[in-house]
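Following the same procedure, sequence and fold were stored together, as reproduced here:

>
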Amino acid sequence: MSTTQKCNLLSDRFRTFYPVIIDIETAGFNAKTDALLEISIITLRMDESGWLHKESKLHFHIKPFKGSIIKPDAIAFNKIDPFNPLRGAISEKTAITSILKMVNKGIKVQGCSKGIVVAHNANFDHNFLMAAMDREKVKKNPFHPFVTFDTASLSALAVGETVLAKACKAIGLPFDNNQAHSALYDTLQTANLFCAIVNRWKYLGGWPTKIKKY
């Protein structure tokens, strides 16, 4: 591996954390009892100049796990019919297996120690992801058990907005409200937003840090 490549690994930028953009659509707010219906992830890379970009993506419609609760107000909001055969839904196990394969590969390639959830209002998505991992009895969970990068908080700092659509528009990204609350679209927009904030910080001279360490 060249010196340039070593300097631009994600492990150097985020203290060995491997950021994974995630959005999850559900049938309620309780991660342990309510069905997970849709999940999408996007991984990231840094180019030779240190700018952050989207890399790979996965997107799955999920079958409600056995005994899960489906709350009418939740599916009325996200407009997901959990039992529509045209969804092409798969089991949580199949989806989690594919996600783990991609994330573990990225962690290894980038020389990182842990995956870290990056999401808008990240506590919600992190809780549902961890609950799904528990249900599938994942022995080696690559994600940090409690640390997340929350783009709602980052957006409040960067552009004074916390709503995803408003934050995207404030930083100069397009946002289609008609596509919102689809896991794939929201993950794409969250990834664009996260990259825009991180890259703007670099553009402004905040990275690499020039603060003297004592």
About this structure: The first strand starts at residue 17 and ends at 26. Strands lie at 17-26, 36-46, 52-61, 114-119, 143-150. The longest helix spans residues 183-203. DSSP finds eight helices and five strands in the chain.
